[in-house]
Amino acid sequence: MLTGQPFSGKTWLCLHMIRSVTTAEPLLGRVVNDGPHLVVYIPTDGGARSEDARRAQLLQTPPRRLLIADGDLSTWADVSAATELAQTWRGLGVTCAVFDNLHSLLPAAAEVNSDAHMRPIARGLQAVADTGIAVLVVHHSAKPGLHGSGGKGAMGSQLLTAWPRRMLHLDRPRRDAPLVRLRVTNNNTPSEELAFHLAAEICKPLDADEARAEHSGRLRDLERRAEQVRQTLVAASFEERGSITGLGRVVHRLGLSVSPDGGRKKAEYWKRCNLLEVDPETRALRQPASVAPG
Fold first, then answer.
1. Per-residue pLDDT averaged across 170-194, rounded?
2. CA distance 258 to 251
3. Distance between the two ends of the chain, CA-based, in angstroms?
């Protein structure tokens, strides 16, 4: 699954990946195994199909190795129908299917936050994968959180993070920024992060000087964020740091998202960071002596 905020370049990255798979040309230093391959691309937003075809042509993707299919919403909630269609694709030689995007696969009344609504779609996509076709699903990322530039996982049901074997998160600091970061997380291996240039016709890694500058910039961003958190905590009163309600106000000043029970969740987070502890007698949150006022 590939996630990212709106306008982060998810579709362009998908098309660059498709071009690499259909031509067997390396992408970002990665080679394509046993290529070239035949890919089926399902732009589930009806108004985007002609635009995606134009984009694929712009990237010079071989038309005989790319099928652009209609996304029939009823197909993917029916395991038998999804399996039958996938077997047809498999018979044509398709080895990869790209769904762009998950929101448009859902029926009108379905909610992406509902496990009950997402489970049939996940089963249908799994049925496609079970035929031996690699499946890539594009989806929006979660709301901005502690990292500041956007959530790092899929928006909605927990099924969306439990089902995929590999998660990719695309992060673009600004809509017009040429440099993006891609975080790749596998089930059983350490995650890795790539920084590269991504635009309409460009998808290339950084050179040595750019890589050093990008690494230094990330360190400065982390130091700036750490200083912001430190100053906010120093300015917070003891009462704010020692209560759920007060902690919610601190969290708000830090620019973190707070759900209805977010105060309690954030309290648990701060407790794990040893900024709060639980009184063994009253079970109330309190401030450890190590960070007492003064």
1. 82
2. 8
3. 48
Burial of 279: CB neighbours in 10 Å, binned 0-12, 13-18, 19+? exposed
In which band, very low, low, confident or very high, does the pLDDT at 294 lie, cut at 50, 70 and 90?
Answer: very low
Torsion of Cα atoms, 94 then 153 then 43 then 56, to 10°: -70
CA–CA distance, 253 with 270 (Å, rounded to integer):
15
Question: Residue 112 carries which DSSP code?
Answer: T
Contacting residues for 220 by C-beta, under 8 A, at least 6 apart: none
DSSP state of 65: G
How many Cα atoms are found within 13 Å in the side-chain-facing hemisphere of 192?
6
Q: Which residues of 167-203 are buried (b: 16+ CB within 10 A; e: fewer)?
A: bbbbbbeeeeeebbbbeebeeeeeeeeebbbbeeeeb
CB atoms within 10 A of CB 121: 25
Task: Determine the Cα–Cα distance for residues 38 and 119; give it in Å rounded to an integer.
Answer: 28
Cis preceding linkage at 173, omega within 30: no
pLDDT (mean) for 199-206: 83
List, in order of start, the domains of the chain with CATH numbers: 2-205 (3.40.50.300), 210-291 (no CATH)
Q: In what order do the strands lie in the sheet with 2-4?
A: 66-68, 38-43, 94-100, 134-140, 2-4, 166-171, 179-186, 192-198, 203-205
Q: Is 156 left (phi over 0), alpha (psi -120 to 50) or beta?
A: left
For residue 202, the model assigns a pLDDT of 84
170: phi then psi, degrees, rounded to nearest 5: -100, 125
- The pLDDT score that the predictor gives to residue 72 is 63
CB 99 within 8 A of CB 133: no
Q: What are phi and psi of 138, to 5 degrees?
A: -95, 135
Q: Report the candidate in 86, 41, 33 with the shortest Cα–Cα distance to residue 59.
A: 41
